[in-house]
Structures are given as C-alpha cells and as structure tokens.
C-alpha cells in the first residue's frame, strides 16, 4: 500500500512541475495576472502536499497505521480537488469552479488532522 502512495506522490510531483512550467511559459501571456496568481496558488498547494505525502511515507515507512492511510488518502484527494479546481478555473474561466476549491481545503485540513492522529498513535505505541 505504501509503495502505491509513493508512486502516486511521484506522479503528483511530476505533474506539479509540469503544470508549474506550463503556467510560467504557456499561460503567462494568455491569462490575466490574477488568474496567473491563482495558478501559482494551485501549484504551491499541490507541491507542498506532495512533499508532505513523501515525508509521511518516510517517517512511517515500516509502521502500519490506519491514520496514516487516511492522511495519505485525504492529501491526495485534497490535491486533486483543491488544485484541480483552481487549474480548471484558470483554464476555463468558469467562476463556479472556485466554489469547489474549499472542499479541497477541508480535505487538506482532514489530512493534517489524520497526520496528527497517526503521530499520536505512534507516540502511544513507543
């Protein structure tokens, strides 16, 4: 299961770099500065949480932990929904897509809560 999330994190990292380059080179002359800032926000959250996934996998590499699994799932879903909705908003200029973004933010918060619970479970078992 952890090797699956390692693969997912690597794919997310690849996608984040590719989308960042796309934003910097292809979108910079096509979209408004506020939309470009929205793209940058999507990239920041995308890459930051990809790194969090990798860090959690390293920190809990040999430990089964249900809270870790929940954290990994919610961080991946958060990236897809939060950053994905912002990418779609910038590319389509359909404002209602911004209404989906807070759900991704809630998933990020849930991921951090699950990470906290994983750390607490680890502390109890030490």
UniProtKB/TrEMBL annotation:
Residues 1-20 form the signal peptide. InterPro entries: DUF423. The keyword Transmembrane helix applies. The chain crosses the membrane at residues 36-60, 72-90, 96-119. The keyword Transmembrane applies. It comes from the Bacteria. It is found in: Membrane. Keywords: Membrane, Signal, Transmembrane, Transmembrane helix. Pfam families: DUF423. It is a multi-pass membrane protein. Belongs to the UPF0382 family. This is DUF423 domain-containing protein. It comes from Candidatus Paraluminiphilus aquimaris.
């Amino acid at each position: 299961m952890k090797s699956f999330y390692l693969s997912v994190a690597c794919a997310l990292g690849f996608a984040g770099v590719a989308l960042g380059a796309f934003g910097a080179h292809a979108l910079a002359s096509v979209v408004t500065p506020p939309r470009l800032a929205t793209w940058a926000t999507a990239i920041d959250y995308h890459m930051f949480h990809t790194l969090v996934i990798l860090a959690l996998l390293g920190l809990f590499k040999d430990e089964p932990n249900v809270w870790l699994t929940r954290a990994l799932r919610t961080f991946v879903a958060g990236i897809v929904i939060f950053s994905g909705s912002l990418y779609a908003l910038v590319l389509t200029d359909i404002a209602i897509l911004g209404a989906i973004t807070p759900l991704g933010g809630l998933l990020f918060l849930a991921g951090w809560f699950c990470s906290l619970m994983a750390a607490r479970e680890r502390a109890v078992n030490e």
